């Protein structure tokens, strides 16, 4: 019997393990020959070497999916562990996925222009009326850059047209 530790990096263990550990319980049920213990961001696995290699490979796939979509659903876990490709989630113009897994997308043509300008230029100025989504889009772009490790820190500089604010 072999023992192995798998450390989950770049993801929230709460999202990965699920509410009340439902995801890890499902994973345990799908691997009945292994003894699996999860603490913090570490998964301890004991069992047959061949089964553990397959388990580790699938956990890394699940971790990658969780990092990309910021969620891990039961269907995805089953698909990956059974060896099927998970159903592709709509990516389209998604800037980033929220903590609930909801995609954050540009909602108007001008927000889409802001996203495209961000990808092509080092510095982008956005001018528009209040409530047009300038800050929301800029923050989503900054979060995406942080998650993709394109930058270490993020600073969004906002200017107001009213000098008193």
Summarize the structure in words.
This protein has 165 residues and is of the alpha+beta class. It has six helices and five strands. Strands 1-3-2 form a three-stranded antiparallel β-sheet, covered by helices on one side. A two-stranded antiparallel sheet has the order 4-5. A hairpin with a 5-residue loop joins strand 4 (96-97) and strand 5. The longest helix has 21 residues, at 49-69.
Radius of gyration, in angstroms, nearest whole number: 20 Å
Q: How many strands in all?
A: 5
Shape: elongated
Strand content: 5-15%
Secondary-structure content class? alpha+beta
Average residue pLDDT: 84
Topology:
Elements: E1 2-7, H1 13-17, H2 22-30, E2 35-39, E3 42-47, H3 49-69, H4 74-81, E4 96-97, E5 103-104, H5 109-120, H6 134-147
Antiparallel strand pairs: 1-3, 2-3, 4-5
Helix pairs in contact: 2-4, 3-4, 5-6
Features:
two-stranded antiparallel ribbon, 165 residues, alpha+beta, single chain, three-stranded antiparallel beta sheet
TL;DR?
The chain has 165 residues and is α+β, with helices and mostly antiparallel strands. The protein has helices at 13-17, 22-30, 49-69, 74-81, 109-120, 134-147, and strands at 2-7, 35-39, 42-47, 96-97, 103-104.
């Amino acid at each position: 019997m072999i023992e192995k530790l798998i450390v989950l990096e770049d993801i929230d263990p709460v999202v990965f393990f699920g509410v009340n550990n439902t995801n890890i319980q499902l994973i345990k049920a799908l691997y009945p020959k292994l003894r699996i213990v999860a603490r913090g961001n570490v998964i301890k696995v004991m069992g047959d070497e061949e089964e553990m290699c397959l388990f580790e490979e699938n956990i890394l796939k699940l971790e990658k999916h969780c990092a990309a979509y910021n969620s891990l659903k039961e269907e995805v876990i089953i698909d990956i562990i059974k060896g099927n490709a998970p159903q592709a989630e709509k990516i389209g113009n998604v800037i980033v996925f929220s903590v609930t897994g909801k995609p954050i997308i540009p909602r108007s043509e001008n927000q889409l222009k802001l996203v495209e300008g961000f990808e092509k230029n080092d510095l982008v100025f956005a001018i528009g009326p209040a409530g047009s989504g300038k800050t929301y889009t800029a923050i989503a772009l900054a979060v995406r850059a942080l998650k993709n490790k394109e930058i270490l820190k993020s600073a969004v500089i906002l200017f107001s047209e009213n000098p008193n604010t």
